[in-house]
Amino acid sequence: MTAQILDGNALAQELRESFQSRVAVLTAKGHRPGLVVILVGEDPASQVYVRNKVNACEKVGLYSEKITYDKDVNPQVVLDKIAELNADPKVHGILVQLPLPKHFDEEAVLEAISAEKDVDGFHAENVGALAQGNPRFIPCTPYGVMKMFEKGGVDLTGKEAVVVGRSNIVGKPMGLLLTNAGATVTICHSKTKDLLFHTSRADIVVAAVGRPRMITGDMIKPGAVVIDVGINRLPDGKLCGDVDFDSCKEVASLITPVPGGVGPMTITMLLANTIEAAERKAA
Ligand code: GUN
């Protein structure tokens, strides 16, 4: 079997086009959606992600602003800025790029963002709403993955889903979304004793561990759906996912590539959440 490839660029493009009319309606009513992205420090990967987020906003007509701080900034300065943005009516979404430098209390920063402007969906209130099956903001990467299932015609009801990775950004919310959608979910991670046992019986595998090509074709059940959330840079500068694409595509029925798979969907769902936040404000 050779898997069908799910093109994240095409789906992202399709969704972004559908956003333009919503942005136009909001803008005409004086509620142009606005996103502020805060970046602390000079992590090269974070710099690229933040630049891509701001550029994507501009392309669909959102107001966007990037605020950068030196890596040694006093965390209180960032907390004060968040308080100011929470009160600013032209700002509908606030995103603090993670990871933050070690001297920051990451949780305190995320909790300082107003839950109504938490377009990342990382605030405890929003995590709780998602856990209760009543989400307000869905974290962008797992949200993008759900859109890919929809596009690929994947019915999740009753399926065995294995998520590899238990991060707050991807693994845990992915597990909640799959559970809410009716899948039977197993979350595997670095302490899992027998990863092969789990992946080889899964109808759906979502890899989000940050280890290049660790999920190989012999770990996958024939016909499984394989979603690759990983973005790893190899010593030669090339990007690769957590999934060994070449061997898995021979076994899976549906697979996402890297680059051009989940990556473009993450930013797209950030735009979706920001527009949604503005629509709620305008209602
Ligand atoms: N760092 C890696 N992924 C993300 C994300 O989705 N949001 C934020 N804020 N930081 C990240």
UniProtKB/TrEMBL annotation:
Residues 139-281 form the Tetrahydrofolate dehydrogenase/cyclohydrolase NAD(P)-binding domain. NADP(+) binds at residues 165-167, 231. Residues 6-120 form the Tetrahydrofolate dehydrogenase/cyclohydrolase catalytic domain. Signal peptide: none annotated. Pathway: One-carbon metabolism; tetrahydrofolate interconversion. The keyword Repeat does not apply. Keywords: Amino-acid biosynthesis, Histidine biosynthesis, Hydrolase, Methionine biosynthesis, Multifunctional enzyme, NADP, One-carbon metabolism, Oxidoreductase, Purine biosynthesis. HAMAP family: THF_DHG_CYH. PANTHER family: C-1-TETRAHYDROFOLATE SYNTHASE, CYTOPLASMIC, C-1-TETRAHYDROFOLATE SYNTHASE, CYTOPLASMIC-RELATED. This is Bifunctional protein FolD.
